[in-house]
Amino acid sequence: RRRREVVELALDDVAPAIRELPARERRILYLRFFENRTQSEIAAEIGISQMHVSRILTQTLASLRATVTEP
After folding, report:
1. Rg for the chain (alpha carbons), in Å?
2. What's the gap between Cα 18 and its chain centre?
């Protein structure tokens, strides 16, 4: 039960930050984590390189982590 509380807290904390992301970053997160697409599949759909998808995911996730862990 404790884990569920932590996950719910994290989602509540991160949701506003996700809404503030540019549309492309939100779309990439959605495709990766809700549609379970590979970086290559996302790259083909968005029209950018797989490496660029990787960079965007890395930067976006770091930003979201920082938002959740800020005091």
Report:
1. 13
2. 7
For residues 34 and 1, give the distance between their C-alpha atoms in angstroms, rounded to a whole number.
23
Going from the C-alpha of 40 to that of each of 10, 20, 36, the distances in angstroms are 28, 25, 12
* 14 touches 68 (CB < 8 A): yes
Helices (H), 1-71: 2-20, 23-33, 39-46, 50-69
Residue 53, amino acid: V
* pTM for the predicted model, two decimal places: 0.80
State percent of the chain over pLDDT 90.
63
Task: Look at the alpha carbons of 67, 7, 3, 56 in this order and tell me if their dihedral is positive or negative.
Answer: negative
29-53 pLDDT per residue, tens: 999 999 999 999 999 999 999 999 9
